[in-house]
Amino acid sequence: MSPTRPQASLDEPADLDLLKVLIAGGFGVGKTTMVGSVSEIRPLATEAPMTMASVGIDDLSRTQAKTTTTVALDFGRITFPEENLRVYLWGTPGQERFWFMWDELANGAVGAAVIVDTSRLQDCFPAVDYFLSRHLPFVVAVNEFDDSYRYSPDEVRDALDLGPDVPIVTFDARNADSVRHVLIAVVVQAANAQSVPL
Predict the structure, then answer these.
(1) Model's pTM, two decimal places?
(2) Number of H helices and number of E strands within the chain?
(3) Is pLDDT of 108 > 80?
C-alpha cells in the first residue's frame, strides 16, 4: 500500500507537507487523550458512554474508571512550522468489535504510533501485528500512567518481540510536548522506511 497525502484545503498554505499518522493501541490506553492534548484544532472525538451492551464483550477489568469509549475515530491536527509540516492524527478504536474500521483509517497513512500501557501489554499485540503485516512504519509509544511500573525500552522490545528497527519511546499522553516527540519519532520512522520524502 503506497501512502497518499491528504489534499490541501483552501485555508492551508500550498507549500506545507501534509501527512496522515494513525494513533492505535488497545482499549483505554490514551489514544483519545493523546490526540486531544496536542491538536491545534478542536479534536473530533466519537466518544460514547459505556453501556450494558459492552458487558461480556469489552474487558473493563483494568479500566474500571472509564465511562466512555471511542466508537469510530479520533481526529486532530498539528503543524510543525519550522519543518513546513502538518500532521493529521487519526485515532483508531481500541475494541476488537471495531477493528473492521482499521483498513479504512489506515488508507493513506505514512506511519503510526502504537500506544502501550505496560500493565496491559497484551492489548497492543493486535495493533503491532496489524502494522507489521502491512509493512506500515510505526513506533511503540509507552504511555507512562501515574501508577504504572516503568520498564526500559529494551524490556518492552523483548516483551513485544520486536527488532531494533522499531523505536520504543516513552511519553505522557496528557502532555502536548511529550506527544510532539512521539509524532516526530513516527515521521522520522516513516522517512527512514522511505514511505515519505522529507
Answers:
(1) 0.79
(2) 5, 7
(3) yes
